[in-house]
Amino acid sequence: MNSLAISGELTIYTAANEKQHLQDFLETDDDLELNLSQVSEMDSAGLQVLILMKQEAARRNKKLRYSMHSKAVLEVMEMCNMTASFGDQVILT
Q1: Where are the alpha helices (DSSP H) in the chain?
Q2: Which of 16, 21, 70, 78 has the most C-beta neighbours closer than 10 Å?
Q3: Residue 13: how many CB atoms within 10 A of its CB?
Q4: For the domain that residue 26 is a member of, what is the CATH number?
Q5: Could you tell me which of 14, 30, 13, 24 has the C-alpha nearest to residue 65?
Q6: Are 85 and 52 in contact (CB under 8 A)?
Q7: Is 71 a member of any domain?
Q8: What does the alpha-carbon distance between residue 1 and residue 10 come to, in Å, rounded to a whole number?
Q9: How far is CA 5 from the centre of its chain?
Q10: pLDDT tens sequence across 14-61
């Protein structure tokens, strides 16, 4: 399993760069984990990137898990009623 951590903002201002970075990450393995513990701010553009990555991983028959969701990530996911949609275990710290 290959792991990657995102740190800083996952917002409209960083979404395009993060999207490209994450698409490159999808090429590295068939079993992937994205650590979200250091995401300091997220908005709907960031959420769209996470949704797109899950869809792209499924399309490529790869397993992509999101782990260690930060408070910022959980707030947006809960506000959009998307927490359960990703199918990842959410552990509150």
Answers
A1: 15-26, 44-59, 71-79
A2: 70
A3: 12
A4: 3.30.750.24
A5: 30
A6: no
A7: yes
A8: 23
A9: 9
A10: 999 999 999 999 999 999 999 999 999 999 999 999 999 999 999 999
Contact 4, 25 (CB under 8 A): yes
Token code pair at residue 47: 């959420």
Tokens of 38: 């250091």
Kindly give, in sequence order, each residue whose CB lies less than 8 Å from that of residue 90, ignoring residues fewer than 6 positions away. Answer: 69, 74, 83
Mutual orientation of helices 44-59 and 15-26 as an angle, nearest 10°? 20
Q: Is residue 27 domain-resident?
A: yes
In a domain, 67, yes or no: yes
Domain range holding 10? Answer: 2-86
Domain count, the chain: 1
Euclidean distance between CA atoms 12 and 68, whole angstroms: 22
The 10s digit of each residue's pLDDT in 52-93 is 999 999 999 999 999 999 999 999 999 998 888 777 777 655
**Is residue 60 domain-resident?**
yes
